[in-house]
Specification:
The complex is a heterodimer of chains A (298) and B (256). Chain A is an alpha/beta fold. Chain A has 10 helices and 14 strands. Chain B has one domain (2-252). The chains are: A alpha/beta (298), B mainly alpha (256).
Chain lengths: 298, 256
């Protein structure tokens, strides 16, 4: 079942078209990476899903229910983490979670156990200070805790890792991975290594449309590469090889790149073995999300 | 209903922890003490100044002060307390729009109209308590030094000025729902109160203007009767309800 379905979503800011007929669906229990350049319309899409922003046309369904701007019952299915979450800084994390729990109508006992559980998950269980003094990473973690509080069916995170250092990023990604057990995670990002690390599915947003969507492994295979990299030790070897095969290009001092027919590469390997040419490494060029991203956003 | 109470609780916690309640209480206590103090000190100050005034040809005779002088001071000073109140609370909505703190509670399922109602309730209760402290202190000192009974319709006068303050509070709510920053809120609230005052110069409009509720001296001295204020009171109550009622659909349609 799809937790989130978007059909033909359009949004203009003045004369600038941000979303032009966006179609997308997010299946249950996936970690869905929503990839796009800065300013591609990721945050706009997310705010439209939350009913915080009025779309010009198009329909959004969360758990099969239509989203309406302004008054949104569908938000009870959603946990939201904005790119820079802002809390009431005079409260402690515990007080803040209690406020959120009461707002969404949870029972008292449930709030207590759930807050404890989540603060442990995000590593803030010992924090007794007010939110005022929190670092960005701590706020991000508290943001995830508040988003997961009412056991949402869909967790929406807007660039949760963009502003964090490598350690903070890893923590957030681990938490998101752990959250997969309970919910579907939909997060926007432009950091492709994050997507490769935790996502099961991804969609590329470009020019207000989804340029490509699918399961990560399938996305990679869509553009199977037939290139190879040969790493060598000595400069003379490089010269011998480039003289023998004109299609080998020297990209770095000791690196040769072959692009073309795979069968032809066997000839090169044969030549290498017959002449006993010392080689450090031969590697097939893996299609990366980065190359895909650059291709679809061209 | 429960979420409305929760959000109100949050509003009071915020006012307490950001120190606004302390400032507010100090402000109203100070204004409450100032009115009888100024009245009490007037004869003494006049005496001090009498020599220099005599040189310029002014002769100071025995200055009589009583509870009426003190209450006149009260109604002269209370507008400044109200201005301070507006300045302190002008950012009650705009701060949340700007920082984005509202975003999280709204996406948790809090209805937007409850935000408007909770903040209105907070402002009204603080204004009522503050104004109550201020007028009670003045009343107490006046009773101690002089006699409050020489004033006419004192209770009524105090109440209608409170009502004027309620109208200003509702204007804060209205303009906060419309505007993005608190400077705009201050300007618009001030501008509206000023235009109500200017409109009250026109005889036909005068009886309906909320600004009439600030014109207390004539009723205190017994020149005017309660009847003269009825139309303005009805009008003000009506405007208060309209302000809050209009704010709700505006906040509902606001893009955050």
């Amino acid at each position: 079942m799809d937790v989130l379905t978007i059909q033909n979503l359009n949004k203009n800011f003045g004369s600038k078209e941000v979303l032009g007929g966006l179609d997308m669906s997010v299946p249950e229990h996936s970690i869905f990476g929503f990839i796009g350049k800065n300013g591609a319309g990721k945050t706009t899409t997310m705010k439209a899903i939350l009913g915080l922003l009025k779309a010009d046309s198009g329909e959004i369904y969360v758990m099969g229910e239509r989203v309406h701007f302004g008054q949104t019952n569908t938000n009870r299915h959603i946990g939201y983490l904005p790119d820079v979450p802002e809390f009431y800084s005079y409260m402690t994390p515990h007080e803040y979670l209690t406020l959120c729990g009461e707002v969404c109508g949870m029972g008292k006992a449930d709030i207590v156990t759930r807050s404890k559980e989540l603060l442990e998950l995000v590593g803030l269980e010992r924090e007794r200070h007010r939110i005022k003094g929190f670092s960005r990473g701590m706020k991000q973690r508290l943001g995830i805790a508040q988003a997961l509080l009412n056991r949402p069916k869909l967790l929406i995170c807007d660039e949760p890792t963009s502003a964090l250092d490598p350690a903070g990023r890893k923590e957030i990604l681990d938490i998101l991975l752990a959250a997969k057990e309970q919910t579907t995670v939909f997060f926007s990002t432009h950091i492709l290594s994050d997507v490769e690390r935790i996502c099961t599915e991804a969609a590329f947003l470009n020019d207000g449309k989804i340029a490509m969507q699918g399961i990560i492994s399938e996305l990679r295979n869509k553009r199977s590469s037939n290139g190879f990299i040969i790493e060598i030790e000595k400069k003379e070897v490089r010269d011998t090889l480039t003289e023998a095969f004109s299609e080998l290009q020297c990209t770095e001092e000791n690196v040769l790149v072959f692009q073309g027919d795979g069968n032809h590469f066997f000839d090169i390997m044969k030549y290498i073995s017959e002449n006993k040419i010392p080689i450090q490494k031969i590697e097939r060029i893996e299609p990366t999300l980065e190359s895909l991203f650059l291709e679809v956003t061209k | 209903m429960k979420s409305l109470l929760t959000f109100m609780k949050k509003e009071y916690l915020e006012t307490a922890r950001t120190g606004k309640i302390v400032i507010l209480i100090l402000l109203f206590v100070l204004f409450g003490i100032m009115n009888p103090a100024v009245a009490k000190l007037t004869p003494w100050m006049m005496e001090m100044l009498s020599d220099s005034m005599a040189e310029s040809g002014l002769i100071v005779t025995n200055v009589q002060v009583d509870a009426l002088t003190s209450w006149t001071q009260f109604f002269k000073n209370i507008p400044f307390a109200l201005i301070a109140f507006v300045l302190i609370f002008s950012d009650i909505f705009t701060k949340e729009y700007k920082s984005g703190t509202l975003l999280l509670v709204l996406t948790k399922g809090l209805s937007r109209y409850k935000v408007v109602l909770a903040k209105t309730a907070l402002l009204l209760s603080l204004w009522t308590v503050g104004y109550g402290i201020c007028s009670t202190i003045t009343y107490g000192y006046n009773a101690y030094f002089w006699d409050n009974s020489i004033t006419n319709n004192l209770f009524f006068s105090v109440i209608i000025w409170w009502l004027f303050g309620v109208w200003v509070v509702c204007l804060i709510v209205l303009f906060s729902s419309l505007l993005q920053n608190n400077a705009g809120v201050i300007l618009c609230v001030g501008g509206t109160a000023l235009s109500a005052y200017l409109l009250s110069i026109i005889p036909k409009v005068k009886t309906y203007s909320p600004a009439v509720l600030m014109n207390i001296n004539s009723i205190l001295m017994g020149i005017e009767e309660i009847d003269a204020y009825i139309k303005a009171i009805v009008m003000t109550v009506f405007l208060c309800i309209v302000c809050v009622a209009v704010s709700i659909p505006i906040v509902n349609k606001r893009q955050l």
